[in-house]
Amino acid sequence: MDKYLHMLVAWVTRAHDFIMTLNDSFETNFSDKELHFLVIGAIGLGLILLVYPLFRLLANRNRVLAITWIYVMTVLVVLTFAIEIGQRVTGTGDMDFGDIVAGMGGFFAVTAVIVVLHLMLFTGRAILRAGKQRRVRRARA
Q1: Gap between the Cα atoms of 31 and 22, Å rounded
Q2: What domain count does the chain have?
Q3: Domain that holds residue 122
Q4: Which helix (H) or strand (E) covers residue 132, if one does?
């Protein structure tokens, strides 16, 4: 088990170094918290895009998105803690609870966008259905 944990920490360190290289190469000067916000938000979006269809296949119900969100949030909390612990172990950054909060903030921001898009789609469908029902009633009258 120790071997796998070290492999995971090494992988996260390589990913961290790659992202820091990109940050330096493009001279974006994102802070550590801003990078956590962006990266964890992107990982969260990726997990939603993978987990939602899978859960949709497993449980054909109306509350699948809520189940997916809870699952992804749980995975991201564990992942953000693992990243911070890995930074402490490898010395690639400071172990800071603020980074965890910033990373989860990225996930919540992406989730807010998804909820707004979902509500817009739901509202649009309801408006179209209401218009169709009015046309049917007029045709019968």
Answers
A1: 13
A2: 1
A3: 2-140
A4: helix 97-140
DSSP, res 95: -
Residue range 53-79, pLDDT digits in tens: 888 887 877 777 788 888 899 999 999
Token pair belonging to 18: 């790659």
Distance CA 73, CA 67 (A): 10
Quote the strand ranges of the chain, DSSP E: none
Q: What number of residues does the chain have?
A: 141
Tens of pLDDT, residue by residue over 73-118, are 999 999 988 888 888 888 887 778 888 889 999 999 999 999 999 9
| Residue 49 to residue 33: CA distance in whole angstroms | 24
- Fill in the DSSP letter of residue 1: -
Token readout for 32 is: 């550590």
- 99: tokens are 């980074």
Determine contact, residues 36/102, Cβ cutoff 8 Å: yes
- Cβ neighbours for 23, distance < 8 A, ≥ 6 positions apart: 29, 30, 35
Q: How many CB atoms lie within 10 A of CB 40?
A: 26
